[in-house]
Amino acid sequence: MKVALIGNMNNNFFSIMRYFRDLGIDAHLFIYRGEYEHFSPEKDTYNIEKYKKYIHKLSIRPSVMGLLFVNKRKIKEELDGYDFFIGCGIAPALFLKLKMRLDILIPYHDNIEYTSQPKLIYNSSGYETVKRFAQKYVVNLQIRGIKENTSKIILNTIQDIGKEAIEKLNLSNKLIKKYVPMVYLEKAQKNEELNEIIEFMRQYNLVVFSHTRHSWGKKSIKEDYRGKGIDKLIVGYSQFIKKSPPDINAILILFEYGEEVEDSKRLIDELGIKERVKWLPLMARRDILQLISYADIVVDSLSVGMWGGVGWEGLANGKIIMQDIAQTDDEYYEEMGHKFPTVMRAESADDVEKHLKNFVENREYFSIKAKENRDWFNRYAGIGLAKEYKKIVQELYSKRCKEVNL
Fold it and tell me: Best exposed site among 108, 126, 291, 311 by fewest CB in 10 Å?
């Protein structure tokens, strides 16, 4: 059985491809034209030569225009010989147009991408009218593709937006509640260029690490967007270091990533903590994963929700993560069927200060919990989850083969 993974937002499918190949599945990755270069496979591995022959370009952009003017014959030729298809992004609409069955949709957006009509600018120009109808056509095509031509959807539905999307489209019969095994941790090679940063981090006995986007929410066009709460982290960290005992030598690692980096830098200057903060340039995940192994606490979004790639990368390295979580532990267990990892729940600067103080006072406890977090990741988001995916693929493929032979 040859498996084709369609799309690669956030390198999620490149991670799945590697897990599958480790588990004996002949999996190949097809990347849409024009996907973000920052999330290319080359940014995720030091061993790209090992995987190049399994990575292919698909002749379509993941856009309205891409779907409207798709060369169906060419894409069918590119996908010829594959037995099982897993897609994200525009895959449902594309496969509907190709008249090919999409076996699994793994959305990279909790709202099941493109199934909600985007807010458009309405004016009198003919171009905007055409644009509006084109987008509406693609949204409807995407919905039809999911409802009529997709066998299963894998989504964790932890956040309300995911539940609402499933209910809105009446897709509960297709839903499989699981995470995406989006982080594949490689340790075979190191980037020697990071040695200087690593040695710098080793000078400190408390390293708080956050590579989340600097987005406070105030510059967003979305009325309900709350940002990432990075300002709360900065203020809480400042409160902590100004009260911490002299034997605590702390450093906050931040990345120059996001529309409000300058706002964060101004806040740091105003608080007088510039010497206790280290700025790093935007980096590839392969390098970030290496640096995280020298951190103590990894901070994702401090705006209510669920952790994203930042949190997964921290858990993969066996770290304590800090995040504002929408659910209680009991609600999470009811939704996912397993216990929550050890997470420092923080929704305010005072919470940040409290957690940092607790960490330095109870290091032995958190050291044990960090190891448990690594085991949790391996079971529910790493190789253990990949094995569950393999079983799902095999069962769906076997079922389809039986139906064809009836």
Answer: 126
